[in-house]
Amino acid sequence: MERTAQTSPYYVGWLQAVEQDLPAARAAVLARDLTTLGAIAERNALRMHACAMAADPPIVYWNPATVAVMETVRRLRADGTQAFFTIDAGPHVKVLCSARDGATVEPALAATPGVLRTLILTPGPGATIVREEYR
Known about the structure:
Elements: H1 2-7, H2 11-31, H3 34-53, H4 64-78, E1 83-87, E2 93-97, H5 102-110
Antiparallel strand pairs: 1-2
Helix pairs in contact: 2-3
């Protein structure tokens, strides 16, 4: 990200967009609004990657399977399944969907050319306080 921050003409704009998106993302989490949160996460991931691609020299993390998964997710959404992708600094796509849609999303992703493995992850238990005594 250091090269992107130093050389991408889009970096400052991406940071500004993140600041604008955070209140809506927080509200979506509190409201359990997957559609809004997913759209924000997807948009932010694409903007971050656009910054990296505009760096000098360009940084392209994606491979053909990355793009294929994005298209699968868009097709799922067009067919009525609420699924949204996000991509960190690498080629691996994470797909956000409800637990009930996982049964539709997982096989669609598994059938996408170039996908080697799919994992279904769910939220863990809530935060807990662990008290330890130190001697």
